[in-house]
Design a protein that fits this description.
8-stranded antiparallel sheet, elongated, alpha+beta, 3-stranded antiparallel sheet
Amino acid sequence: MHKEGWSTIIVALAIVVITVVVLYVTGAPHWLSASLLVPEIVVSAIVINFFRYPNRTFKGDELHDVIAPSDGTIVTIEEVFEPDYFNDKRLQISIFMSLTNVHAQWCPLNGQVLKVLHEDGRFKKAYLPKSSNENERSTIVIKSDAGPIIMMRQVAGAMARRIVTYINTGDKSEINSELGFIKFGSRIDLFLPLDAKVLVKMGERVKGNVTPIAKI
């Protein structure tokens, strides 16, 4: 279970326990007990599932592979102009995370962290293209051990209200290491060199720290 979820899980389970105690003490009828407890138990199960944190180890080319930083679905593969850091054209690959996906993020490659910047913003639906520049976001720029520089962006979604980034400017980015966490629906954008070889396709489901999405 992920450390970011313990407080939320404890609250969800406490609500279920309190409801059980109140229903027992008051002698509530079975139909009322069921109508209250079933939704609470379902919500608690969803919360526990959301904060799961699988133990994964990447087994591939650690020098040239860019690894999916998170679980989700590929929603963007396109050439774009990136104005915030590179100020030139880049290959953008975006991963949308639904509520059922693992929401932890792993480092996408080995290298040196050149910049980490958190920016407040709006909370549009994460699958919309404008969410990358308008929503709350955290930007991480990494110079890979292979040479090229990439940018990764954690983007909040309509339900997300907290982005956590564990690495800082000057840190090492290391494969198999956790980079951060976004609570509830969200999105990850990667900005790669134009000559990167894309290994995924639109609509493909990827697994964080498992699926190579490009070679640089």
